[in-house]
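Reply to dn_fold:

You asked what the input looked like. This is it:
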Amino acid sequence: MIGLLCIGFDTLCQKNNAKFVAGGRNFSPRRPVCRSVRQIRPAAEVPKGRVHAGLELDYNKLLDMVSEMGYRLMESGAEIYRVEESIHRLLEAYGVPRGEVFAIPNCIIVSLISPEGRPLTQIRRMPPHGTDIYLLEKYNGLCRRLCQETPPFDQALRRMRAIARLHVVYPLPVQLAAHFLGCGMFSLFYGGTWRDGICGGICGVVIGLCSALMARFGANLFFKTIAGAAVSAVAAVLLTAAGLGAHRDLIIIGALMALVPGIAITNAMRDIMAGDMVAGISKGAEALLIGAAIALGTALGLGVTGLIGGGGAL
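and this is what came back:
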């Protein structure tokens, strides 16, 4: 009963205070009214400022950390649903019940609401990127550990930078050897002879060299694909004309498998099945564009050799 009377008196004082301010005078009581009633407010109404003992929850740093994790996952080639789910789980692990994530292949938007009701948003634009399974696995594992341990934000960012620092990129000779082996095996898989396999591997090496050269000039994926398919077709025609290869078509098909966007098609289908229609359609269109570039480059290479050879190459 006493508590109810104090609450009623406090409400009356607040109304009178509003009237005094509206009338041009400022009224401020010298001491708080019903301090004992205000101090017995339930703990659930008090904004939480800590995830666990010793860790202050800075919402700006939390937003930076989760955005950086999503950026690195997508840069490594992660699917859209994986990026969004990882950020959601990080926000929940650090005690943020209201967090929203929207990701498409070239942009990430992360938003959350602070305990004071202030919205915080960060947008990260994604540059052109490929797929790196090693980095994808490492960042995915780190995200799981961060959700379990919830370390300080600076420590989490240091772990991300450590993964990028320890990442080893294979040198160009190793990449060319992989092109030779992969393309040669595909030529054999499609029914070619062992000579066709060797010629397919040589065409794969030509594609690798062309892609590395075009990357130094800053060419985009479409023109790199056209150039790779064109030089591969020219190399296959020359090798067949020299008598090293028996089946030109099988050599070309085996070499072009290095350019086929298999991961892009797979990720597009997975995003569509997960309900991310915008991301799925975008990646599907990218895969179709790369396929058109392969066909255009191959036709260009065969056409050039046909003109030079007087139609015999065709």
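The chain has twelve helices and three strands.
Hope that clears it up.
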